[in-house]
Amino acid sequence: MKKALFASPQDAESAFYDALTKADLDAMMAVWADDDDVYCVHPNGARISGVESVRESWRKIFSSGQTLRFQLRESQTVQGMMLSVHSVYEHITIAGETRPRGPVITTNVYLRTERGWRMVAHHASPAPAAAEPEPRRAAPPKTLH
Asked: Is the pLDDT of residue 132 over 60?
């Protein structure tokens, strides 16, 4: 299978989330570099290293049959000529569930290769619960003189 040429890290990231939404393993692996140094950390999971192990982890996720939808928010990017690091909040909706999932903070790392931009790392962790706002204190009684 010939891999697509991603002209920018943003193109690679769009293809990554498209493959994730469609549960398309071939499209997912087309985004990844062919390097045994690649790694992936799924939410609450261990680090998975190497192309074949990463492929197997996505195969297991896709075989669950869940339909996932993503809204990406608060994206931050640090980009150089050869490396691009993207940090996003993923807001995930799963078809059939009535309660939304908590957001996931994700870091995606892309490397410029001779065959275009490729993912070399994906690290996703549940976002910490939002801090509860402090309770409002009653204003002190006003004294009129």
From this structure: no
Phi, psi of 24 (to 5 degrees): -105, 100
For 8-67, how does the pLDDT look when each residue is reduced to its tens digit (9 = 90+)? Answer: 999 999 999 999 989 999 999 999 999 899 999 999 899 999 999 999 999 999 998 777
Residue 29 to residue 3: CA distance in whole angstroms: 9
88-67-95-11 Cα dihedral, nearest 10 degrees: 30
b/e map of 17-54 (b: 16 or more CB within 10 Å)? bebbeebebeebbbbbbeeeebbbbbbeeeebeeeeeb
> d(Cα 108, Cα 104) in Å, to the nearest integer?
12
CB atoms within 10 A of CB 96: 7
pLDDT classification of 145: cutoffs 50, 70, 90: very low
Helix or strand run (H / E) with residue 76 = strand 68-79
**DSSP strand pairing (104-113 vs 116-126):** antiparallel
How far apart (Å, rounded) are the C-alpha atoms in residues 14 and 145? Answer: 66
